[in-house]
Write a structure and sequence with these properties.
mainly beta; 4-stranded mixed β-sheet; 9 strands; globular
Length: about 110
């Protein structure tokens, strides 16, 4: 699924829909993607449930799923591709960000 800000794979959409639908909180409207300071390289992706839209949020609606993007994160994730991968030992959301200039060895943080 495409957006100028964030491209989301079908596997990521399916997993996010599953996460939201199994939440015990019935007021959940979707998930918010933001960035926070941290990790070896300086920034990490942060995802949380959303029960209320915040002023300035960019909102993607994909197959009934709402993804809210923190307005402070937009310029840093512009053009990013989000995927969900599962292998024998782990499963996780993967972000391929064309704005990254460096990524830490464990892959949890990045620098823009």
């Amino acid at each position: 699924m495409n957006s100028e800000i964030l491209k989301v794979s079908q596997s990521a959409i399916d997993r996010l829909k599953e996460i939201v639908s199994t939440s015990k909180e019935k007021s959940i409207k979707g998930v918010r993607i933001s960035l926070k300071s941290g990790g070896c390289a300086g920034m990490t992706y942060d995802m949380n449930y959303v029960d209320q839209e915040s002023k300035g949020d960019e909102i993607l609606e994909l197959e009934g799923l709402k993804i809210f993007i923190d307005p402070k994160a937009v310029m840093f994730i512009l053009g990013t591709e989000m995927d969900y991968k599962t292998d024998k030992f782990s499963s996780s959301f993967i972000f391929k960000n064309p704005n990254e200039i460096e990524r830490c060895g464990c892959g949890e943080s990045f620098k823009i």
